[in-house]
Design a protein that fits this description.
This protein has helices at 42-45, 122-126, 141-147, 177-197, 212-224, 251-269, 282-295, 313-322, 363-371, 380-390, 422-428, 455-458, 462-476; strands spanning 59-60, 65-68, 73-81, 90-101, 104-105, 111-115, 151-156, 205-210, 234-240, 347-349, 355-358, 408-413, 434-439. It has 477 residues and is α/β, with parallel strands linked by helices.
Length: 477
């Protein structure tokens, strides 16, 4: 089985001559800009219809917006319609990059496109420092890499754009891993074209996917092998803390995935296309826990449909971070998390092993992170994710992984998917250049205090332990 990406080819890279518009006199640039010759600005890129060449049913819904992040780093974003449904087939494309002057990116030969996972969008996942006052604005992987001269791009998947007041989710019925992989292909095509237009060249890009975003990225990598090598967009692949298939040493985890896949498939067939195994609007609950921990920290916590031990909302927020697996389990239904002891953030414990806080992030920083979740998410890709982990259903997303030959860096958090994801990177892909970065500080017995799934991008030491090694790998490759 295969799904087709042949309509997504970088034809735009051959169609850039003459696209863009003249800068109005009121927006005339300083003389220094003359040095860039035919290079155009991000303002002009908003009108570059040639940048969409080679994509299908794609149009710019907005122009690029610009936000100053640090003294020399800007964050751009633009909305794209990527299907026939103008109300719902919407993604957002982000660019975080050094600038020469406002609207004129500095030349950046190295580049990466980042794909977020469940619940959070690009900003929540990779620029969370800009959504909290607890850390400096540059304490995020996107800003860090931009400061090193990397041109950082990212996508907000379709479900992140669904309004909070939505009640009918039928439009999500056919959104799946293949849908999102196709949107990744569109994003790569547009990003390469805009990079060429603004002076950084049209070279291939690294592709980084975190969590569910890694499964989406695996699906894209598999499908891209259908294209001739010259039309492919990825130069290096960075799956972060996720599994595509479990190895033989993780048979128990594979069986757990089969149970989740069976339950999920039953829910899909019943007509539920949004949410997760816990119910509809799972992101709403994440947001509410974060907000309650901020505004009512000392109030006794309650969760709908779940019996909690006596704790405050502040303690609940910390528990969601350090013992995430508790909220992903339903022993009566035989449902268990993907891997044992899975957690977002490493916990701190007293001598009696009682949870007292979080190690790598401040409590308020983590509560702000929870509050930035999106309310809704399409359900099918989550069920397909478990079906891939189970390995009993034939899905198209792994058909050609053995033909993926680009360099690969797998990054795993010891308290997240960690070593469980190494099998997919080393055994499923056809690359002979696979590097493993296992972010682990303690022995397995102290897994609860080790790097969590979200610590990789939120943690106080993530710059040294995670982001710098990723940058060095990109630079080397």
């Amino acid at each position: 089985m295969r799904f087709n990406l042949r309509h997504i080819v970088p034809v735009a890279l051959l169609s850039l001559v003459g696209c863009g518009v003249e800068t109005p006199a009121s927006e005339a640039q300083p003389a220094a800009v003359e040095e860039v010759g035919q290079v155009q600005s991000m303002l002009q890129a908003s009108d570059c219809q040639g940048c969409l060449a080679g994509t299908e049913n794609t149009r710019f819904v907005s122009g690029f917006t610009r936000e100053q992040v640090t003294s020399d780093i800007a964050h751009y974003s633009i909305r794209l319609q990527v299907g026939p449904d103008a109300a719902h087939d919407i993604i957002v494309l982000h660019r975080v990059v050094k600038e020469q002057i406002p609207w004129w990116p500095a030349r950046a030969p190295e580049s990466v496109l980042m794909v977020h996972g469940d619940a959070w969008d690009f900003r929540g996942a990779f620029m969370a420092s800009t959504l909290t006052a607890q850390v400096q604005a540059d304490h995020s992987i996107a800003v860090y890499l931009a400061q090193q001269g990397v041109d950082v791009w990212g996508i907000d998947l379709r479900w992140t754009q669904v309004p909070a007041e939505t009640q009918d989710f039928t439009f999500m019925k056919n959104w799946n891993l293949g849908t999102h992989a196709k949107d990744v292909g569109t994003s790569l095509t547009v990003a390469r074209a805009v990079r060429a237009l603004t002076g950084s060249g049209a070279g291939k890009m690294n592709l980084l996917g975190w969590s569910r975003g890694a499964q989406v990225a695996y699906a894209y990598m598999s499908a891209e092998t259908d294209l001739p090598p010259g039309l492919r967009s990825v130069s290096g692949f960075i799956p972060v803390d996720m599994v595509m298939h479990f190895g033989p040493e993780a048979e128990q985890q594979r069986q757990w995935a089969c149970v989740r896949a069976t339950v999920g498939d039953m829910l899909l067939k019943s007509g539920r296309y949004e949410g997760n195994l816990s119910g509809s609007g799972a992101g709403v609950l994440i947001m509410q826990v974060g907000q309650a921990a901020i505004y009512w920290p000392n109030t006794q916590a309650q969760l709908p449909g779940m019996e909690l031990p006596p704790m405050t909302y502040s303690q609940l927020g910390v528990t969601v971070g350090a013992a995430t697996y508790m909220f992903l389990s339903n022993e009566q239904a035989g449902i268990y998390p993907a891997v044992p002891g899975y957690h977002f953030a490493a916990g701190k414990f007293d001598p009696n092993n009682a949870l007292t806080g979080l190690q790598q992030v401040t409590d308020r920083q983590f509560f702000d992170f929870l509050s930035s979740a999106h309310p809704y998410q399409s359900f099918t890709e989550q069920v397909e994710g478990d079906q891939l982990l189970c390995g009993q259903k034939d899905l198209p997303y792994d058909d050609n992984l053995s033909e993926v030959k680009v360099p690969v860096l797998y990054v795993g958090a010891a308290g997240g998917y960690g070593s469980y994801g190494e099998y997919s990177a080393k055994k499923l892909l056809g690359s002979k250049d696979v590097t493993i970065l296992r972010v682990q500080k303690f022995q397995e017995a102290f897994r609860a205090a080790d790097y969590g799934h979200a610590d990789l991008f939120l943690g106080a030491n993530a710059k040294t332990d995670v982001w710098a090694p990723i940058y060095q790998w990109m630079k080397k490759h």
